[in-house]
Amino acid sequence: MTTFLTATVIALGLCLALEVLAGDSVTRARLAPRDLALRLLGYMLILLFWFEFSWRPWLAGLTCVTTVAILIIVSRAKRSVIGEPLLFSDFALLPQVPRHPQLYYIPPLWDPRISVPTILTLAATILWYRTEPSVLPAATLPGLAAVIGLPLGLALLVWAAPRPPLVRLIARWFPQPDLEGDVARVGLPASLLGYTARAMAGSEPVPAVPVLPLCRGDDVVVVIQLESFIDPERLGGPPLPAMELFRTQAAQYGRLRVPAHGAYTMRSEHAVLTGRPPDVLGFGRYDPYTARSGDEPTSLARLARARGYETLFLHPFHRDFFRRAQVMEAFGFTDLVMGESFADAPRVGPYVGDVALGERLLAEVRARRRPLLVFCVTMENHGPWKPGRLPGIDDPEAQYLHHVAHTGRMVQNVAAELEALARARGETVTLCVFGDHAPSLPSCKPGFGERATDYALFRFGHTEVPPQRVDLAADALGLAVRGALATAPTDIAAGT
Protein backbone atom coordinates (compact mmCIF):
# COMPACT_ATOMS: atom_id res chain seq x y z
CA MET A 1 0.00 0.00 0.00
CA THR A 2 2.87 2.38 0.82
CA THR A 3 4.39 1.81 -2.62
CA PHE A 4 1.04 2.45 -4.30
CA LEU A 5 0.45 5.68 -2.35
CA THR A 6 3.97 6.94 -3.04
CA ALA A 7 3.73 6.21 -6.77
CA THR A 8 0.27 7.77 -6.92
CA VAL A 9 1.28 10.98 -5.15
CA ILE A 10 4.32 11.43 -7.39
CA ALA A 11 2.33 10.66 -10.57
CA LEU A 12 -0.49 13.05 -9.69
CA GLY A 13 2.03 15.76 -8.78
CA LEU A 14 3.81 15.35 -12.12
CA CYS A 15 0.51 15.45 -14.01
CA LEU A 16 -0.45 18.64 -12.19
CA ALA A 17 2.93 20.21 -12.96
CA LEU A 18 2.58 19.26 -16.63
CA GLU A 19 -0.81 20.91 -16.93
CA VAL A 20 0.09 24.03 -14.97
CA LEU A 21 3.38 24.61 -16.78
CA ALA A 22 2.67 23.23 -20.27
CA GLY A 23 -1.04 22.48 -20.46
CA ASP A 24 -3.30 23.41 -23.35
CA SER A 25 -5.10 26.31 -21.72
CA VAL A 26 -5.44 29.80 -23.18
CA THR A 27 -5.48 31.29 -19.68
CA ARG A 28 -3.64 30.57 -16.46
CA ALA A 29 -4.60 27.28 -14.81
CA ARG A 30 -6.94 27.72 -11.84
CA LEU A 31 -6.18 25.93 -8.60
CA ALA A 32 -9.14 26.72 -6.33
CA PRO A 33 -9.74 23.83 -3.88
CA ARG A 34 -12.73 22.25 -5.70
CA ASP A 35 -11.13 22.75 -9.11
CA LEU A 36 -7.87 21.23 -7.88
CA ALA A 37 -9.78 18.25 -6.47
CA LEU A 38 -11.45 17.69 -9.85
CA ARG A 39 -8.08 17.89 -11.59
CA LEU A 40 -6.59 15.28 -9.29
CA LEU A 41 -9.68 13.09 -9.64
CA GLY A 42 -9.23 13.10 -13.40
CA TYR A 43 -5.60 12.01 -13.07
CA MET A 44 -6.53 9.39 -10.48
CA LEU A 45 -9.12 7.76 -12.74
CA ILE A 46 -6.54 7.51 -15.51
CA LEU A 47 -4.04 5.96 -13.11
CA LEU A 48 -6.56 3.40 -11.84
CA PHE A 49 -7.51 2.52 -15.39
CA TRP A 50 -3.91 1.57 -16.20
CA PHE A 51 -3.28 0.02 -12.80
CA GLU A 52 -5.97 -2.62 -13.33
CA PHE A 53 -3.96 -4.06 -16.25
CA SER A 54 -0.66 -4.47 -14.42
CA TRP A 55 -1.07 -4.10 -10.65
CA ARG A 56 2.32 -2.40 -10.70
CA PRO A 57 2.13 1.05 -9.04
CA TRP A 58 5.18 2.63 -10.66
CA LEU A 59 4.24 1.39 -14.14
CA ALA A 60 0.68 2.69 -13.67
CA GLY A 61 2.03 6.04 -12.42
CA LEU A 62 4.39 6.40 -15.38
CA THR A 63 1.63 5.43 -17.80
CA CYS A 64 -0.69 7.98 -16.22
CA VAL A 65 1.87 10.77 -16.62
CA THR A 66 2.57 9.66 -20.19
CA THR A 67 -1.16 9.64 -20.98
CA VAL A 68 -1.62 13.18 -19.68
CA ALA A 69 1.45 14.34 -21.62
CA ILE A 70 0.10 12.77 -24.82
CA LEU A 71 -3.31 14.37 -24.30
CA ILE A 72 -1.63 17.77 -23.92
CA ILE A 73 0.54 17.28 -27.02
CA VAL A 74 -2.40 16.13 -29.15
CA SER A 75 -4.59 18.94 -27.84
CA ARG A 76 -1.97 21.58 -28.60
CA ALA A 77 -1.47 20.17 -32.09
CA LYS A 78 -5.21 20.19 -32.69
CA ARG A 79 -5.50 23.75 -31.43
CA SER A 80 -2.81 24.90 -33.87
CA VAL A 81 -4.90 23.60 -36.80
CA ILE A 82 -8.52 23.92 -35.67
CA GLY A 83 -8.38 26.40 -32.80
CA GLU A 84 -9.93 24.13 -30.16
CA PRO A 85 -8.54 21.87 -27.44
CA LEU A 86 -9.10 18.15 -27.50
CA LEU A 87 -12.76 17.22 -27.11
CA PHE A 88 -14.52 14.20 -25.67
CA SER A 89 -16.33 13.81 -28.99
CA ASP A 90 -13.01 13.45 -30.83
CA PHE A 91 -12.66 9.96 -29.40
CA ALA A 92 -15.94 8.94 -31.05
CA LEU A 93 -14.29 9.72 -34.39
CA LEU A 94 -11.23 7.52 -33.77
CA PRO A 95 -12.70 4.48 -35.58
CA GLN A 96 -12.68 6.56 -38.76
CA VAL A 97 -8.89 6.90 -38.74
CA PRO A 98 -7.99 3.30 -39.72
CA ARG A 99 -10.98 3.09 -42.10
CA HIS A 100 -10.20 6.39 -43.85
CA PRO A 101 -6.50 7.16 -43.22
CA GLN A 102 -6.31 9.36 -46.33
CA LEU A 103 -8.45 11.99 -44.59
CA TYR A 104 -5.90 12.61 -41.84
CA TYR A 105 -2.32 13.71 -41.47
CA ILE A 106 -1.63 10.73 -39.19
CA PRO A 107 0.99 8.39 -40.71
CA PRO A 108 0.09 4.70 -41.24
CA LEU A 109 1.06 2.16 -38.58
CA TRP A 110 4.03 0.93 -40.62
CA ASP A 111 5.54 4.41 -40.87
CA PRO A 112 8.72 4.56 -38.72
CA ARG A 113 7.33 7.60 -36.90
CA ILE A 114 4.58 5.34 -35.57
CA SER A 115 6.02 1.82 -35.68
CA VAL A 116 9.36 2.59 -33.96
CA PRO A 117 7.86 4.34 -30.87
CA THR A 118 5.20 1.62 -30.67
CA ILE A 119 7.77 -1.18 -30.69
CA LEU A 120 10.00 0.62 -28.18
CA THR A 121 7.04 1.27 -25.88
CA LEU A 122 6.00 -2.38 -26.07
CA ALA A 123 9.55 -3.56 -25.32
CA ALA A 124 9.90 -1.15 -22.39
CA THR A 125 6.56 -2.28 -20.96
CA ILE A 126 7.56 -5.95 -21.15
CA LEU A 127 10.87 -5.15 -19.46
CA TRP A 128 9.10 -3.14 -16.76
CA TYR A 129 6.71 -6.03 -16.12
CA ARG A 130 9.68 -8.30 -15.50
CA THR A 131 11.39 -5.74 -13.25
CA GLU A 132 8.68 -4.27 -11.00
CA PRO A 133 6.84 -6.77 -8.81
CA SER A 134 3.07 -6.87 -8.80
CA VAL A 135 1.22 -5.75 -5.67
CA LEU A 136 -1.71 -8.05 -6.42
CA PRO A 137 -2.49 -10.07 -3.24
CA ALA A 138 -0.85 -13.48 -3.36
CA ALA A 139 -3.72 -15.26 -1.65
CA THR A 140 -6.28 -16.65 -4.10
CA LEU A 141 -9.47 -15.08 -2.77
CA PRO A 142 -8.07 -11.57 -2.11
CA GLY A 143 -6.29 -11.66 -5.45
CA LEU A 144 -9.41 -12.74 -7.29
CA ALA A 145 -11.47 -10.10 -5.48
CA ALA A 146 -8.97 -7.41 -6.49
CA VAL A 147 -8.80 -8.53 -10.13
CA ILE A 148 -12.59 -8.49 -10.39
CA GLY A 149 -13.34 -5.63 -7.99
CA LEU A 150 -11.27 -2.80 -9.54
CA PRO A 151 -12.48 -3.23 -13.16
CA LEU A 152 -16.03 -3.76 -11.89
CA GLY A 153 -15.83 -0.60 -9.79
CA LEU A 154 -14.59 1.46 -12.74
CA ALA A 155 -17.28 -0.03 -14.97
CA LEU A 156 -19.98 0.81 -12.41
CA LEU A 157 -18.66 4.37 -12.26
CA VAL A 158 -18.98 4.66 -16.05
CA TRP A 159 -22.50 3.22 -15.85
CA ALA A 160 -23.54 5.59 -13.04
CA ALA A 161 -22.01 8.78 -14.49
CA PRO A 162 -24.92 9.62 -16.85
CA ARG A 163 -27.57 8.54 -14.33
CA PRO A 164 -29.00 10.05 -11.13
CA PRO A 165 -27.79 10.87 -8.61
CA LEU A 166 -24.21 11.09 -9.96
CA VAL A 167 -25.23 12.92 -13.11
CA ARG A 168 -26.74 15.71 -11.02
CA LEU A 169 -23.45 16.14 -9.19
CA ILE A 170 -21.49 16.20 -12.45
CA ALA A 171 -23.99 18.73 -13.81
CA ARG A 172 -23.12 20.99 -10.87
CA TRP A 173 -19.45 20.74 -11.79
CA PHE A 174 -20.11 21.24 -15.52
CA PRO A 175 -23.44 23.10 -15.79
CA GLN A 176 -22.99 24.44 -19.33
CA PRO A 177 -20.47 23.92 -22.13
CA ASP A 178 -17.54 26.28 -21.54
CA LEU A 179 -14.70 24.40 -23.14
CA GLU A 180 -11.88 26.92 -22.77
CA GLY A 181 -13.00 27.92 -19.28
CA ASP A 182 -13.27 24.32 -18.09
CA VAL A 183 -9.85 23.32 -19.45
CA ALA A 184 -8.35 26.23 -17.52
CA ARG A 185 -10.47 25.45 -14.46
CA VAL A 186 -10.12 21.68 -14.01
CA GLY A 187 -7.64 20.61 -16.67
CA LEU A 188 -7.89 18.58 -19.84
CA PRO A 189 -8.45 15.05 -18.43
CA ALA A 190 -11.20 16.10 -16.01
CA SER A 191 -12.88 18.17 -18.75
CA LEU A 192 -12.81 15.21 -21.14
CA LEU A 193 -14.34 12.91 -18.51
CA GLY A 194 -16.91 15.44 -17.29
CA TYR A 195 -18.08 16.39 -20.78
CA THR A 196 -18.30 12.71 -21.71
CA ALA A 197 -20.58 12.07 -18.73
CA ARG A 198 -22.79 15.04 -19.63
CA ALA A 199 -23.02 13.90 -23.25
CA MET A 200 -23.81 10.29 -22.23
CA ALA A 201 -26.70 11.60 -20.14
CA GLY A 202 -28.57 12.19 -23.38
CA SER A 203 -29.64 15.05 -25.57
CA GLU A 204 -31.07 18.08 -23.86
CA PRO A 205 -34.44 19.46 -25.00
CA VAL A 206 -34.07 22.04 -27.74
CA PRO A 207 -36.51 24.78 -28.73
CA ALA A 208 -38.90 24.01 -31.56
CA VAL A 209 -38.15 25.50 -34.96
CA PRO A 210 -40.95 27.69 -36.37
CA VAL A 211 -43.45 25.83 -38.57
CA LEU A 212 -43.53 26.82 -42.24
CA PRO A 213 -46.51 28.74 -43.60
CA LEU A 214 -48.92 26.86 -45.86
CA CYS A 215 -48.12 28.51 -49.17
CA ARG A 216 -46.87 27.28 -52.50
CA GLY A 217 -43.28 26.06 -52.42
CA ASP A 218 -40.58 25.90 -55.06
CA ASP A 219 -40.59 23.00 -57.49
CA VAL A 220 -36.91 22.26 -56.87
CA VAL A 221 -34.78 23.11 -53.85
CA VAL A 222 -31.06 22.34 -54.12
CA VAL A 223 -28.63 22.88 -51.24
CA ILE A 224 -24.94 22.26 -51.93
CA GLN A 225 -22.49 22.12 -49.05
CA LEU A 226 -19.08 23.00 -50.48
CA GLU A 227 -16.18 21.31 -48.74
CA SER A 228 -13.69 23.78 -47.20
CA PHE A 229 -14.98 26.58 -49.41
CA ILE A 230 -14.12 30.25 -49.06
CA ASP A 231 -13.51 32.96 -51.64
CA PRO A 232 -9.92 32.22 -52.78
CA GLU A 233 -9.16 35.94 -52.98
CA ARG A 234 -9.33 35.93 -49.18
CA LEU A 235 -6.23 33.70 -49.31
CA GLY A 236 -4.51 35.86 -51.90
CA GLY A 237 -5.58 33.58 -54.76
CA PRO A 238 -6.96 34.59 -58.15
CA PRO A 239 -10.56 35.77 -58.57
CA LEU A 240 -13.11 32.98 -58.85
CA PRO A 241 -15.78 33.60 -61.51
CA ALA A 242 -18.38 31.94 -59.27
CA MET A 243 -17.91 34.71 -56.71
CA GLU A 244 -18.87 37.28 -59.34
CA LEU A 245 -21.93 35.11 -60.00
CA PHE A 246 -22.76 35.37 -56.29
CA ARG A 247 -22.54 39.16 -56.35
CA THR A 248 -24.48 39.71 -59.58
CA GLN A 249 -27.14 36.98 -59.79
CA ALA A 250 -27.83 35.65 -56.31
CA ALA A 251 -30.87 37.01 -54.49
CA GLN A 252 -28.76 36.95 -51.34
CA TYR A 253 -25.08 36.29 -50.63
CA GLY A 254 -22.41 37.06 -48.08
CA ARG A 255 -20.22 35.68 -45.34
CA LEU A 256 -21.50 32.69 -43.39
CA ARG A 257 -20.56 32.32 -39.73
CA VAL A 258 -19.97 28.62 -39.10
CA PRO A 259 -19.43 26.72 -35.81
CA ALA A 260 -15.87 25.51 -36.49
CA HIS A 261 -12.64 26.22 -38.32
CA GLY A 262 -10.91 23.70 -40.54
CA ALA A 263 -13.00 20.64 -39.60
CA TYR A 264 -16.21 19.40 -37.95
CA THR A 265 -18.31 19.52 -41.09
CA MET A 266 -21.21 18.00 -39.18
CA ARG A 267 -21.66 21.15 -37.10
CA SER A 268 -22.41 23.40 -40.08
CA GLU A 269 -24.34 20.62 -41.79
CA HIS A 270 -26.57 20.14 -38.76
CA ALA A 271 -27.14 23.88 -38.37
CA VAL A 272 -28.32 24.28 -41.97
CA LEU A 273 -30.45 21.13 -41.98
CA THR A 274 -32.16 21.97 -38.69
CA GLY A 275 -32.05 25.75 -38.37
CA ARG A 276 -30.76 25.28 -34.81
CA PRO A 277 -27.87 27.39 -33.45
CA PRO A 278 -25.14 25.48 -31.60
CA ASP A 279 -25.88 27.11 -28.24
CA VAL A 280 -29.26 25.35 -27.93
CA LEU A 281 -27.70 21.88 -28.31
CA GLY A 282 -25.98 21.78 -24.93
CA PHE A 283 -23.00 19.43 -24.86
CA GLY A 284 -24.17 18.01 -28.19
CA ARG A 285 -22.94 21.11 -29.99
CA TYR A 286 -19.47 19.62 -30.47
CA ASP A 287 -20.72 16.64 -32.47
CA PRO A 288 -24.48 16.90 -33.04
CA TYR A 289 -24.51 13.73 -35.15
CA THR A 290 -23.21 11.61 -32.29
CA ALA A 291 -25.35 13.40 -29.71
CA ARG A 292 -28.66 13.56 -31.60
CA SER A 293 -28.20 10.94 -34.37
CA GLY A 294 -30.48 12.86 -36.72
CA ASP A 295 -33.39 12.94 -34.27
CA GLU A 296 -34.82 16.18 -35.65
CA PRO A 297 -38.58 16.10 -36.31
CA THR A 298 -38.47 19.54 -37.94
CA SER A 299 -35.40 18.96 -40.12
CA LEU A 300 -35.42 20.39 -43.62
CA ALA A 301 -35.88 16.94 -45.16
CA ARG A 302 -38.76 15.93 -42.87
CA LEU A 303 -40.59 19.17 -43.58
CA ALA A 304 -40.07 18.64 -47.31
CA ARG A 305 -41.40 15.07 -47.16
CA ALA A 306 -44.47 16.24 -45.25
CA ARG A 307 -45.17 18.60 -48.13
CA GLY A 308 -44.85 15.96 -50.83
CA TYR A 309 -41.25 16.45 -51.91
CA GLU A 310 -38.82 13.74 -52.87
CA THR A 311 -35.80 14.05 -50.61
CA LEU A 312 -32.35 13.13 -51.90
CA PHE A 313 -28.98 13.16 -50.13
CA LEU A 314 -26.05 13.17 -52.56
CA HIS A 315 -22.46 12.63 -51.40
CA PRO A 316 -19.63 10.84 -53.24
CA PHE A 317 -18.02 9.19 -50.21
CA HIS A 318 -18.44 6.22 -47.90
CA ARG A 319 -21.72 5.70 -46.09
CA ASP A 320 -20.06 5.06 -42.74
CA PHE A 321 -18.15 8.34 -42.61
CA PHE A 322 -19.69 10.40 -39.76
CA ARG A 323 -22.40 7.67 -39.83
CA ARG A 324 -23.87 9.86 -42.55
CA ALA A 325 -26.17 7.25 -44.10
CA GLN A 326 -27.78 6.45 -40.75
CA VAL A 327 -28.07 10.10 -39.73
CA MET A 328 -29.40 11.29 -43.09
CA GLU A 329 -32.10 8.64 -43.08
CA ALA A 330 -33.08 9.83 -39.61
CA PHE A 331 -33.14 13.39 -40.89
CA GLY A 332 -35.79 12.32 -43.40
CA PHE A 333 -33.92 11.71 -46.66
CA THR A 334 -35.57 8.80 -48.45
CA ASP A 335 -32.99 8.46 -51.25
CA LEU A 336 -29.26 8.35 -50.59
CA VAL A 337 -26.80 8.41 -53.49
CA MET A 338 -23.36 7.88 -51.96
CA GLY A 339 -19.90 6.49 -52.59
CA GLU A 340 -20.84 3.20 -54.24
CA SER A 341 -22.74 5.11 -56.93
CA PHE A 342 -19.57 7.02 -57.90
CA ALA A 343 -17.22 4.07 -58.41
CA ASP A 344 -16.57 5.08 -62.03
CA ALA A 345 -16.82 8.85 -61.58
CA PRO A 346 -13.76 10.97 -62.49
CA ARG A 347 -11.50 11.83 -59.59
CA VAL A 348 -9.39 14.90 -59.05
CA GLY A 349 -6.74 13.86 -56.60
CA PRO A 350 -8.06 11.24 -54.16
CA TYR A 351 -11.74 12.21 -54.33
CA VAL A 352 -14.60 12.44 -56.83
CA GLY A 353 -14.37 15.72 -58.73
CA ASP A 354 -16.86 18.47 -58.02
CA VAL A 355 -17.71 18.97 -61.70
CA ALA A 356 -18.64 15.29 -62.02
CA LEU A 357 -20.71 15.53 -58.85
CA GLY A 358 -22.53 18.53 -60.27
CA GLU A 359 -23.38 16.57 -63.41
CA ARG A 360 -24.85 13.76 -61.30
CA LEU A 361 -26.88 16.29 -59.31
CA LEU A 362 -28.33 17.79 -62.49
CA ALA A 363 -29.17 14.31 -63.81
CA GLU A 364 -31.14 13.64 -60.62
CA VAL A 365 -33.01 16.93 -61.01
CA ARG A 366 -33.90 16.16 -64.63
CA ALA A 367 -35.14 12.69 -63.70
CA ARG A 368 -37.46 13.82 -60.90
CA ARG A 369 -41.18 13.14 -61.12
CA ARG A 370 -42.26 15.20 -58.14
CA PRO A 371 -41.05 18.33 -56.35
CA LEU A 372 -37.53 17.65 -55.17
CA LEU A 373 -35.25 18.61 -52.30
CA VAL A 374 -31.58 17.76 -52.81
CA PHE A 375 -28.88 18.16 -50.18
CA CYS A 376 -25.50 17.62 -51.82
CA VAL A 377 -22.12 17.50 -50.04
CA THR A 378 -18.97 17.88 -52.15
CA MET A 379 -15.72 16.04 -51.48
CA GLU A 380 -13.04 17.10 -53.96
CA ASN A 381 -11.44 19.77 -51.78
CA HIS A 382 -11.36 17.73 -48.56
CA GLY A 383 -7.99 17.80 -46.81
CA PRO A 384 -5.32 16.94 -46.15
CA TRP A 385 -3.44 18.90 -48.79
CA LYS A 386 0.02 17.34 -48.85
CA PRO A 387 2.71 16.27 -51.35
CA GLY A 388 1.62 13.55 -53.76
CA ARG A 389 -2.02 14.58 -53.85
CA LEU A 390 -1.84 16.22 -57.30
CA PRO A 391 0.77 15.56 -60.01
CA GLY A 392 3.27 18.39 -60.11
CA ILE A 393 1.54 20.43 -57.37
CA ASP A 394 2.90 19.87 -53.86
CA ASP A 395 2.23 23.23 -52.21
CA PRO A 396 -0.89 22.90 -50.01
CA GLU A 397 -2.34 26.27 -50.96
CA ALA A 398 -1.73 25.66 -54.67
CA GLN A 399 -3.55 22.33 -54.36
CA TYR A 400 -6.46 24.03 -52.63
CA LEU A 401 -6.72 26.72 -55.32
CA HIS A 402 -6.63 24.04 -58.03
CA HIS A 403 -9.57 22.26 -56.45
CA VAL A 404 -11.57 25.37 -55.59
CA ALA A 405 -11.50 26.40 -59.26
CA HIS A 406 -13.38 23.17 -60.02
CA THR A 407 -15.81 23.92 -57.19
CA GLY A 408 -16.53 27.30 -58.74
CA ARG A 409 -17.03 25.79 -62.17
CA MET A 410 -19.48 23.24 -60.75
CA VAL A 411 -21.50 26.00 -59.06
CA GLN A 412 -21.64 27.93 -62.33
CA ASN A 413 -22.75 24.85 -64.28
CA VAL A 414 -25.47 23.94 -61.78
CA ALA A 415 -26.75 27.52 -61.52
CA ALA A 416 -26.93 27.91 -65.31
CA GLU A 417 -28.74 24.59 -65.78
CA LEU A 418 -31.24 25.23 -62.98
CA GLU A 419 -31.98 28.70 -64.32
CA ALA A 420 -32.58 27.28 -67.81
CA LEU A 421 -34.79 24.53 -66.35
CA ALA A 422 -36.89 27.07 -64.46
CA ARG A 423 -37.42 29.12 -67.61
CA ALA A 424 -38.18 26.14 -69.83
CA ARG A 425 -40.72 24.61 -67.46
CA GLY A 426 -42.11 27.78 -65.92
CA GLU A 427 -41.08 26.53 -62.49
CA THR A 428 -39.46 28.06 -59.43
CA VAL A 429 -36.11 26.80 -58.20
CA THR A 430 -33.98 27.65 -55.17
CA LEU A 431 -30.26 26.98 -55.18
CA CYS A 432 -28.26 27.46 -51.99
CA VAL A 433 -24.49 26.96 -51.90
CA PHE A 434 -22.30 27.43 -48.83
CA GLY A 435 -18.90 26.55 -47.42
CA ASP A 436 -18.96 24.23 -44.42
CA HIS A 437 -15.77 25.65 -42.88
CA ALA A 438 -12.54 27.34 -43.89
CA PRO A 439 -9.69 25.07 -45.02
CA SER A 440 -7.02 24.02 -42.53
CA LEU A 441 -4.14 25.47 -44.55
CA PRO A 442 -0.90 27.07 -43.33
CA SER A 443 -2.19 30.39 -44.70
CA CYS A 444 -5.59 29.94 -43.03
CA LYS A 445 -4.94 29.50 -39.33
CA PRO A 446 -7.58 29.39 -36.58
CA GLY A 447 -9.16 32.79 -36.18
CA PHE A 448 -9.04 33.46 -39.92
CA GLY A 449 -12.06 35.51 -40.98
CA GLU A 450 -13.85 34.96 -37.66
CA ARG A 451 -14.91 31.44 -38.69
CA ALA A 452 -16.74 32.78 -41.75
CA THR A 453 -17.06 31.05 -45.10
CA ASP A 454 -19.10 32.26 -48.11
CA TYR A 455 -22.61 31.46 -49.30
CA ALA A 456 -25.16 32.40 -51.95
CA LEU A 457 -28.92 31.90 -52.33
CA PHE A 458 -30.30 31.91 -55.89
CA ARG A 459 -34.04 32.11 -56.66
CA PHE A 460 -34.76 31.14 -60.28
CA GLY A 461 -38.23 31.67 -61.73
CA HIS A 462 -39.09 34.26 -59.10
CA THR A 463 -39.48 37.98 -59.55
CA GLU A 464 -35.97 39.32 -59.96
CA VAL A 465 -34.60 41.37 -57.11
CA PRO A 466 -31.26 43.16 -56.85
CA PRO A 467 -28.58 41.00 -55.19
CA GLN A 468 -28.28 41.79 -51.51
CA ARG A 469 -25.34 41.08 -49.26
CA VAL A 470 -26.47 39.68 -45.94
CA ASP A 471 -23.93 38.15 -43.57
CA LEU A 472 -25.51 35.53 -41.34
CA ALA A 473 -24.94 32.36 -39.32
CA ALA A 474 -25.31 28.80 -40.63
CA ASP A 475 -28.51 28.15 -38.68
CA ALA A 476 -30.05 31.37 -40.06
CA LEU A 477 -29.23 30.15 -43.58
CA GLY A 478 -31.08 26.93 -42.78
CA LEU A 479 -34.13 28.96 -41.80
CA ALA A 480 -33.86 31.02 -44.99
CA VAL A 481 -33.84 27.85 -47.12
CA ARG A 482 -37.00 26.65 -45.37
CA GLY A 483 -38.81 29.53 -46.98
CA ALA A 484 -38.50 27.70 -50.32
CA LEU A 485 -40.59 24.82 -48.94
CA ALA A 486 -44.30 24.80 -48.24
CA THR A 487 -47.28 22.89 -49.61
CA ALA A 488 -46.08 20.93 -52.59
CA PRO A 489 -46.60 22.26 -56.13
CA THR A 490 -48.43 20.12 -58.70
CA ASP A 491 -46.65 16.87 -59.58
CA ILE A 492 -44.71 16.84 -62.80
CA ALA A 493 -46.50 15.33 -65.74
CA ALA A 494 -45.00 12.09 -67.00
CA GLY A 495 -42.54 12.58 -69.79
CA THR A 496 -41.96 16.31 -69.26
UniProtKB/TrEMBL annotation:
Coiled coil: none
Segments forming domain Sulfatase N-terminal: 221-443
Keywords linked to the UniProt accession: Cell membrane, Membrane, Transmembrane, Transmembrane helix
Transmembrane residue ranges: 32-51, 58-77, 141-161
One Pfam family, short name: Sulfatase
Bilayer topology term: Multi-pass membrane protein
Subcellular location: Cell membrane
This protein's name: Sulfatase-like hydrolase/transferase
